[in-house]
Structures are given as C-alpha cells and as structure tokens.
C-alpha cells in the first residue's frame, strides 16, 4: 500500500517526564518545497534520554527524535533539491540535517547555519506549532523547505545511515575543526557513539596514533576494535598529543585533555552541551604552549555529506553495525528513553 494512501500516520508523542503516547494524526498537505518522509529506522540519541529525564529542556508536547533514515513519499509544489543540487524524488532513501536555517541572517551568511538566529531543529519543535511532524519517532516526518537532505548510497545500510545525521556528521565537524590530522597524535575522550566514530574518522584522515580514554573498560575494548592504538583508563597517564577531541562532556575529562596537549596542541570540545563544574584554565600555559581551544555544536551541511562518504569508505572494514541494537517497535519507545542503557551505543526503533 502507498504509505500516503491512508492519510494518517502514527507518532510517539512525548507529553513530559516519562509519558510517551502513540497517537494517530493526519498527514499534512505539503507546502512548496516540503518533503514527506517515511521513517525506515530511527536511532535513539542520548540527548533525547536527557530530555525525558529532565537534564535538558525541550518543547512539550512534541515528537522527539532526530537521527534516522527514511524514504521520500511526496514532495511539495516546486520540488526540492538534495545536498548535491540534484532534484529529490519519491522513493529516494535519505538522511537529513538536524538544523533548518533561514539562510539570510548574519550567522548564516558567515557560514554558521547551525547557529542561525531563527534555527529550527528536527525533533525539537512543539507539536502544536506549524511543524508538528518534526521528529523521527514516528512513521512519517515532514522536512521543511530548505532542509538539508542527502541521498544515501545504496551500499550504506540503514543501521549505518540512521546515526549519520547527528552523531557521525557532528564528528566530521569536529575533525574539520581539529585541522589536518595526517601524522598527528590524537586523543579521543569518551568512547560512546561519537567517540567511536571519531576514532574511525581520525584514522581515515591519517592520524599516526589515536588514543581513546574512557572510564568504562568495555567501551575501551570496543574502541580498540574500531582502530584505537591505545586505550588508557582515566587513571592512567596519557602521552602528549597534538589534538584532543572531547566528547563526554565531563569536566574532569576536559581538564585531562588540556593537560595532554603538546606544544601547538588543539582541543576541540564537543560533548559539553549541559551545565557542569567549571574547568580551571591556566592562561600562561595556553600562551606558552601555543594551545588552541575551540568548540563545535551541531554541524554544517557539508559535514552530513562527509559522514555518508566516511561510512561508505569504511563500511567493510569497521564493525559499524555493532553500534546499533536490533530495532524495537515504536510502541516500545518509552522504555528505550527511560530504561537502562543497552549494551550497544544506540538503541533503534523501526516505525
């Protein structure tokens, strides 16, 4: 049956706390350039678990979820272009950017569309707004005109493609911010989904060594399988590095990264997206060490394409599929958001 023919879809509506309810709602009439997508597989980002637990704020009620892969069902009048400039069509398997920017404000003109002054975000919009079907924990979502939409290579399976629009693309932005990595010593702090992707990206960029630090021994073992050259515990000394990428958000880990920088070293902060204890900073050490500290939050459209290309290049040599658990039903989403974290870095639902 044509996914559009029933004119209804099912969403997992988050109503605050741990309340998630399946609701049937009408499919909208699309505006010019809008894209209706049937969700094939959605992965559960840790930020959504933080929203449900109260660690971060988000509009409520809403349809959460932003990491997914889907199939285009319908496109509004005038059509829509993919990130490569080619026309999108019904049947295309696609991923999309987390942010939707205006393209006209000073930040957009400066190339920081992720920080657009009127940015909208997939999975972060109120259900009673003009964009109710914004989240991926649903059978369908609508992508507004101007959203970044990228066709997925046929060689990249859904389990690899689904996290590309958040975790993997964010890592590609962090690697770009780190500068050229060929021949350099890299420290990756945190061996979750982003950290493991960072290991692969750094090795792919030619890093001479990729050291992974994480308090969890099982995660460190997994990092070794993904190409880490050393996996010290958090109490072990770390040899000086040229680049540190901090993905855990833990203040102690940020300080550890600063301590590990060699002369000319660069620290890229990615995981610090919630309030935490302040980290002492010695300005003299920064000056004498020629150190650079920078931050990355979300990413630009080019990083989504870079993520898909990395996944395609490495799909046969990296155990990416081990990072995503077998898909659960949409009806089981509440347990994935509120229950204990699974052994795989990403839970998944197949709406």
Describe this structure in words.
There is one protein chain. The protein has 2 domains: 8-165 and 319-349, Alpha-Beta Complex (Quinone Oxidoreductase, Chain A, domain 1), CATH 3.90.180; 168-295, 3-Layer(aba) Sandwich (Rossmann fold), CATH 3.40.50. 24% of the residues lie in helices and 23% in strands. The protein contains 10 helices and 16 strands. It has helices at 46-53, 106-109, 158-161, 167-178, 193-204, 217-225, 251-260, 283-288, 301-314, 333-338, and strands at residues 8-14, 20-26, 35-43, 62-63, 67-75, 93-96, 99-100, 120-121, 140-143, 149-151, 185-189, 209-213, 241-246, 261-269, 292-295, 348-349. The strands form 4 sheets. Strands 3, 5, 6, 9, 10 and 16 form a 6-stranded antiparallel β-sheet that branches. A 5-stranded parallel β-sheet has the order 12-11-13-14-15, with helices on both faces. A 3-stranded antiparallel β-sheet has the order 2-1-4, with no helix packed on it. Helix 4 crosses helix 5 (193-204) and helix 4 (167-178) packs across helix 9 (301-314). Residues 194-312 form the Alcohol dehydrogenase-like C-terminal domain. Its EC number is 1.1.1.1. Belongs to the zinc-containing alcohol dehydrogenase family. Keywords: Metal-binding, NAD, Oxidoreductase, Zinc.
Please provide a brief summary of the model:
The chain is an alpha/beta fold. The chain contains ten helices and 16 strands. It has helices at 46-53, 106-109, 158-161, 167-178, 193-204, 217-225, 251-260, 283-288, 301-314, 333-338, and strands spanning 8-14, 20-26, 35-43, 62-63, 67-75, 93-96, 99-100, 120-121, 140-143, 149-151, 185-189, 209-213, 241-246, 261-269, 292-295, 348-349.
């Amino acid at each position: 049956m044509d996914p559009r023919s029933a004119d209804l879809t099912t969403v997992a509506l988050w109503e605050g706390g741990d309340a998630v309810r399946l609701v049937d709602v009408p499919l909208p009439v699309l505006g010019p350039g809008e894209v209706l997508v049937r969700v094939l597989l959605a992965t559960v980002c840790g930020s959504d678990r933080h929203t449900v637990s109260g660690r971060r704020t988000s509009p409520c009620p809403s349809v959460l979820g932003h990491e997914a892969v889907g199939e285009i069902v319908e496109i509004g009048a005038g059509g829509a272009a993919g990130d490569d400039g080619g026309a999108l069509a019904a049947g295309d398997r696609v991923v999309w950017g987390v942010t939707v920017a205006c393209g006209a404000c000073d930040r957009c003109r400066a190339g920081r569309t992720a920080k657009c002054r009127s940015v909208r975000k997939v999975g972060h919009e109120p259900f009673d707004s003009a964009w109710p079907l914004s989240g991926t924990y649903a059978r369908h979502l609508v992508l507004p005109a101007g959203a970044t939409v990228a066709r997925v290579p046929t060689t990249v399976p859904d389990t690899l493609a689904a996290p590309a629009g958040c975790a993997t693309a964010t890592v590609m932005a962090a690697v770009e911010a780190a500068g050229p990595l060929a021949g350099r010593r890299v420290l990756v702090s945190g061996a979750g989904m982003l950290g493991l992707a960072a290991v692969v990206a750094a090795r792919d960029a030619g890093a001479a060594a990729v050291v992974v630090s994480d308090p969890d021994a099982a995660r460190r073992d997994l990092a070794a399988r993904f190409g880490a050259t050393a996996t010290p515990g958090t109490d072990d000394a770390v040899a000086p590095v040229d680049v540190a990428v901090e993905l855990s958000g833990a203040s102690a880990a940020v300080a550890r990264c600063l301590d590990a920088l060699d002369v000319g070293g660069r620290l890229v902060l990615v995981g610090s997206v919630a309030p935490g204890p302040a980290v002492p900073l010695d300005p003299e050490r920064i000056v004498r060490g020629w150190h650079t500290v920078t931050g990355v939050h979300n990413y630009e459209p080019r990083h989504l394409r870079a993520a898909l290309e990395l996944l395609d290049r490495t799909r046969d040599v990296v155990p990416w599929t081990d990072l995503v658990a077998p898909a659960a039903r949409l009806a089981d989403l509440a347990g994935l958001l509120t229950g204990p974290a699974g052994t795989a870095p990403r839970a998944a639902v197949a709406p």
